[in-house]
Amino acid sequence: MTARILIVDDVFANIRLLEARLTAEYFSVVTAMSGPQALDICERGECDVVLLDVMMPGMDGYEVCRRLKSAPATAHLPVVMVTALDSPSDRLTGLQAGADDFLTKPINELALLTRVRSLARLKHLTDELRARATGSTGLGLPDPLSLAAAEDGLNGRVLLIEDRVNAAERMSAALQQHHVVDVEIDASHAVRRLTDGGYDVAILSLNLTDADPLRLISQIRSDNNLRNLPILVLTETIEDPRINRVLDMGVNDYLVRPVDRNELIARTSTQIRKKRYQDRLRENLRASMELAIVDPLTKLHNRRFLQTQLASLLGNANARGAAVSLLVLDLDHFKQINDRHGHDAGDDVLRDCAERLRHAVRSIDIVARFGGEEFVVVMPDTEPFAAQRVAERIRASIETVAFSVSGGTKSVTVTASIGVATTSVPGQDGDALFKLADAALYDAKRDGRNCVRIAA
After folding, report:
1. b/e map of 345-358 (b: 16 or more CB within 10 Å)?
2. In a domain, 297, yes or no
3. Fewest C-beta in 10 Å: which of 141, 163, 233, 258?
4. Does residue 58 form part of some domain?
């Protein structure tokens, strides 16, 4: 996978060295020699991964990283700190600033390329979610990027998969300062616990005694419910050849023993923050999709969804020679409810009516609010006599039980008129079927309302 890599360093020779290594692997390279220049490039969206030198005059790498991670427009950018400083306190400072990883000079070329590829994959996934989520800003939803960038990565749920009891106890004690931690010493139970437990991150030892950790990682990533779960692995040495392999399998990060407790906390919190960032974007996407096809008051499908699905159902039914019936329902004298009891009472009636409709039809039927006090029910594989029977059941369910309004302090009696139409000729489209049912509805209104009429 190719990507655009921003190299930030105030030493030109260092830039050229990294640039040569990355372009040889077909990455596109952008360069900056100061913090402000790097921020400007990132804000314009001209890179996918940032390789950031720590020691720079004016604005150092830690400050650049903090600014990138605190801005909604750039919080998702993966940042790798490149530094000659390798003490635990230096790594901790960078991780607390929001860095995704560290590379120590002189840079190991294999570690550089593996980490860049891994972070680029994550960035491309996040970009897709961001693009879809930001398209919902005109729908009245909160700004997803600001909400996602505000995540702090604390108070997460962590499953530690480690069969060394002493090591598990030490790491659990460190993580419990900020998270809820469970320990699993039997790897055969890990996938089930992860599926059932609602965890934010899994920490997995690559030196399990009675299990193949790579097989376990494969099982986790093969589970649809766990594909987006961050995995952090523990290894004995940076030279372990399995590190590159597990990163290719979808592992998010690794720690080398002996594990520094502060680095463990920081890396775990970083992974939880990333997960919540993506979860927030996915939730925003789900909400925007729901707004596009669901009526917000009744939670039924809306007119747009109905028209799309009706065309598909009719096409399928025509191919099989099956009948499709359509009901158009209108609440009688609904305006009087609004005038006498207020619009809140009218909303109560509409919500209750929607619930009664749901209970009166099959799960394969489509129930939609067409607009105002008008509802539509589409029933595939339904002949006219069966559709009429369902319509009568719906009409009776509305008439016989009064509707509770105004918080239960009042009740109103409501009736409904219903028109029914069934496909009669091959190739009949949705508009024609709806017009037939709508004409039958007007017949019901002319005949005194509170009745069902079948289209001729």
Report:
1. bbebbbebbbeebe
2. no
3. 258
4. yes
Residues 66 and 167 in one domain: no
What pLDDT is recorded for position 147? 61
Instruction: Give the whole-angstrom CA distance, residue 161 versus residue 166.
Output: 13
| 150 shares a domain with 75 | no
Which residues are bridge partners to 52 per DSSP? Answer: 8, 81
**Domain shared by 372 and 248, yes or no:** no
Q: Write out pLDDT tens, residues 344-398.
A: 999 999 999 999 999 999 999 999 999 999 999 999 999 999 999 999 999 999 9
Residues of the chain with confidence (pLDDT) below 50: 139
- Tell me, what CATH number does 197's domain have? 3.40.50.2300
- Which three-class secondary structure state does DSSP give residue 230? coil
Judgement on whether residues 342 and 212 belong to the same structural domain of the protein = no
The per-residue DSSP string of 164-226 comes to -HHHHHHHHHHHTTTSEEEEE--GGGHHHHHHHHT-SEEEEETT-SSS-HHHHHHHHHHSGGG
Annotation marks residue 19 as catalytic = no
Residue whose token pair is 């409810």: 337
How many other C-beta atoms can be found within 10 angstroms of the C-beta atom of residue 342?
Answer: 13
Q: CA-CA distance, 10 to 62, in Å (whole number)?
A: 14
Q: Which domain range does residue 66 map to?
A: 1-134
User: Which are the contacts of 221, defined by CB distance < 8 A and separation ≥ 6?
Assistant: 227, 249, 250
* DSSP 8-state symbol, 77: S
246 and 327 within one domain: no
Largest Cα separation within the chain, whole Å, is 89
Catalytic residue, from 162, 184, 263, 373: name it. Answer: 373
